[in-house]
Amino acid sequence: MIASKLLSRTFLRYQSTAAAAAVAYNSKNVPVHQTKLFINNEFVESVSGKRFEVINPATGDLICDVAEADKEDVDIAVAAARKAVEYGSPWRTMDASQRGRLMYKWADAIERDLDYIAALETLDNGKPLNDSRGADLPLVINTLRYFAGWCDKIQGKTIPSDGSNFVYTRHEPVGVVGGITPWNFPLGMFAWKIAPILACGNTCVMKVAEQTPLTALYVAKLAKEVGFPEGVINVLAGYGPTAGRAIAYHMDIEKVGFTGSTEVGKLVQEASAKSNLKRVTLELGGKSPNIIFDDCDLEQAVAASHMGVFFNVGQCCCAGTRIYVQDTMYEKFVERMVQKAQQDRILGDPYDPRTNHGPQIDDVQLNKILGLVESGIQQGASLQTGGAQHGEKGYYMQPTVFAEVQDHMDISTQEIFGPVMQISSFKDTDEVIERANNSQYGLAAAVFTKNVDRMYHMCTALKAGNMWGNTYNVLVPQSPFGGFKQSGFGRDLGEYALSHYTEVKCVSIAVPQKNS
Ligand code: NAI
Ligand code: MG
User: Which domain holds residue 228?
Assistant: First the structure.
């Protein structure tokens, strides 16, 4: 993400305003204001009264506990969202331009509280404050503004159909949408889902990840403050197999937008078939190839490939972990990647401005990563650096680089979701295309070369929803993002996202042949 020029510009802008604000947050002084469920514009306890603990991944310490939604709470939230989206409701009768104004105001309120929200995101997720403030929050704000602009530009067609009818299409809201989001970019993924949901005039029940519920609950308060009508936005904290499942199976939810593992994506799709055939879009896992030809700008490739794996400590669905390097450049490239992993990654307190490498989200993820690293060693890959947990507190993982990786190894086929890079070598173009495409996933792919013909050829041949040439992690609100194959279907962001949150209604009205 940082690799994109656009975001680095935003990054610099927010860095300087943040410095001017001179608000010094640390893990001990970030207040938590909202720990209840947000339903029908009110913060409420769960029906069961149950609460669950939220942990700071950098220390393993308890931050707070939060109300735990289950099926009953989902039912109440869906009923509120249903009432709010019915024909004649304030939300449905509101001018589309006014809907856009509410979204702009929401973005403004988030920007006003950016220092605080970024600090809260860092507390909850562990990511360095520089990333929360410089990458995640700007993307949240920009996404809301991008879709706010769409509200009054979503339009149908008039159709010159056979017969004597006036035929036109309306792009209507789908209705009540369930959003199920992950913990790697907690507010980022929340924004990617909720922005097109609202722009298209839907209402929603958002189930945020159990590891990271805090920032979404806070911005729900801001949504009320800026004037969203009751029932339009509902935010629930809760677990997947309970609250998440209740959304996936709900008979009165028309659509689910999901981001998370491929395994759970399949359950959500199955739940749709077994309940009401709700529309489903899935943004799932990846194992993205990053292909380095020997005619590339080596330092450009090294810098982008480093961020392609280590940004957000590898907890990115589009991480470019399968790196294929042309054999003539292989040794030099491996050497530079190892140096960079050892020198550029600064592990530490996420509130320290020097830190660029925080903890993994929890012990479950850390253990999954350590297990896959162990399998890499067992299966004969060459561990160049890292490979172990770092420190005693929190869930830090050393930046890790494997060379001499072979395609059959688990580290080459499975999503690791940690700071673990796999490098292997290739000889020619046809070979690398075949190997790169030989994956159950197809989320992203990257190519580094100065040869224009080769660049176009590769960008056509590779099977991935997002292709990057001489760069990595270009993620901006204007561009669609999503996967081929088992990386899911549907697109977040961009104009493409709108089609998933509207239904096309075709209207035919008889027109008299002559004036009567
Ligand atoms: P997950 O897929 O279980 O969690 C994502 C969301 O789905 C969370 O909100 C969770 O509560 C919900 N969920 C879980 N089970 C559900 C169910 N039965 N019905 C409905 N919702 C359910 O992912 P998890 O377990 O946190 O991570 C496992 C692996 O998934 C990671 O190691 C990584 O490989 C991948 N992952 C991919 C992400 C992406 O950005 N595409 C994000 C998070 C995880
Ligand atoms: Mg899970």
Answer: 33-284+489-504
